[in-house]
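User: Can you predict the 3D structure for this chain?
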Amino acid sequence: MSFDEFVGEVERRAGVSREDAERASVPVLQELCDRLTGDEARDLLAQLPYRLKTALIVNPSPLRISRDEFIARVARELEIPAEEAHTRIRAVFATLRQAVLWGAFEDVLEQLDPDYADLLA
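Assistant: Here is the predicted structure, written as structure tokens:
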């Protein structure tokens, strides 16, 4: 999947402008990578479009944050209400699921707490 296709899918799924979809993609993916082990984050990023993977930083050890804190961090970064952040996170995650191989996405799921489930649905 190309960068333009990725952002276009986020735009469609979140019902936001292309600019807002692009602006949401990097912070959501960065927060996700921050939650993953370095190896899993690198495996995931390897399957993303160049423009996304080069915008993200892999941290050596995962942060342990709740689903609510994840949403709050994205909301703060994007300067939007938590409800809107929730919608954009779901759109990015759904697009991510489409963009990468199932095995890579399954590895991500294994590292997230069960309370993240509604973000992944």
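The chain has one domain: 3-120. Residues 3-120 form a domain with the Globin-like fold (CATH 1.10.490.110).
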